[in-house]
Amino acid sequence: MSSGALRRGITAVLERVCAYLWGFPPRLMGPIAAQLGSLRALGWFVWNMPRYQRTLKVFGPVRTHLLCTTISLINGCRYCSHGHAYAFELAYLREYGRLFPLSEQAIDLLRGLSPGVVRRRMVGIVQSAGLHGEVRWLERAAILTTADDPRPTDRDDVRIVHLVRMFRVLNSAGMASKTEPDGDAHSPLNKDIALKLRYARLRDAVDPG
User: Is the pTM of this model over 0.85?
Assistant: First the structure.
């Protein structure tokens, strides 16, 4: 099999896995296969996705997507920050029955600012949304994202460090390829059509046009 055919085949496999989880094939699978190499990309997903799924279960979607969004904002990745900010918005609405103060588009405006500014503004927004218990997790994720060699110093750090390392790869591929956001949430919640329609109606009422 030629390298091009192998890459297309593995890209299709990764897209099918994500489509099963999220309800759509994300655009980043091809760029990741190109950046890492086909077989390495497959191995990378086999190693990282189960750990990510366990973190999603342990942390819950609100915390997990909040951290993924913050990490991606600091790294400067439009593709991942949008996909996870939208996932966070849906998770917050489902959990608390109200909109998060900022839309995913407004959150993305923080991308490109200095890490310290992103951290401070995200902390302020999260506190205004009543998520005071998430602040320490967000701050730790921000600190580890800017570390040259992030390593856990306690038990709580282990999952955060994995997210930081995982998203360095995802963010790098997204930025290098300039992949446009999918327009969908990087979450199983993306398959909840009723939740997405409810979110769209509420957001349109708050931010018309």
Answer: yes
